[in-house]
Amino acid sequence: MTNPSPDLAALREAILCGDPSRAMPALVGLREVPVEQAVPLLLLGLEQSMFMVRSLSCAGLGVKQNEAGWQALVVAMQGDEDANVRAEAANSLVSHSLERAWPLLRDGFAADQQWLVRCSILSALAEQPAIDPAWLLELASMAITDADGTVRVGGAEILARLVREQGAAEARVLLQQLQADPDHRVVAAALNGLQS
Fold it and tell me: Does the keyword Amino-acid biosynthesis apply (predicted)?
């Protein structure tokens, strides 16, 4: 028995209704819808006032991929007022294309001071097995100068990976410097990395 195809008009109405308890299940329901029908509805979700709806729309655009979705994610990452939405947009850009997303995420990391966005960018890129080690080093070097300890920990963990997987001398030097960090979590991550 095949599933009946989703009612696009009903999904659209739920996304536009202003009630997240109806809009969010409708957005999740777009998983069953082909890209060309799903993306316009996800773009509508990005225009809604509730940040949870916009964030879930970004996540959907990471799965249902086309050029219109890519462009909308770039706009959301660079300009949405809510850090959750910007963070989810960054994640979804990496899902589209690591190579294409890298310069945008590097610039986004430098420009966006919000720790949630920065941590999201760090983890989205660090999870990519094929990422250029030089990109990771550049990103980690920025992260370890952040005012937020959580972001510095993320940078230290990336440096540790570079030491472990690449034997990167520059990453090791940076980890050694982090042993004097005022945040004990950063020091622990640095010591961990130096033992690899």
Answer: no
pLDDT value for 1: 47
* Start-to-end C-alpha separation, the chain: 53
Instruction: Output Rg (C-alpha) for the chain, integer angstroms.
Output: 19
The pair phi, psi for residue 97, each rounded to 5°, is -165, 115
Write out the two tokens for 14. 């739920």
Q: What are the structural domains of the chain?
A: 1-114 (1.25.40), 132-196 (no CATH)
Q: Report yes or no on whether pTM surpasses 0.85.
A: yes
Which residue ranges in the chain fall short of pLDDT 70? 1-4, 196
d(CA 86, CA 183): 26
User: Do residues 97 and 65 make contact, with C-beta atoms less than 8 angstroms apart?
Assistant: no
- The span from the CA of 8 to the CA of 54, in Å, is 19
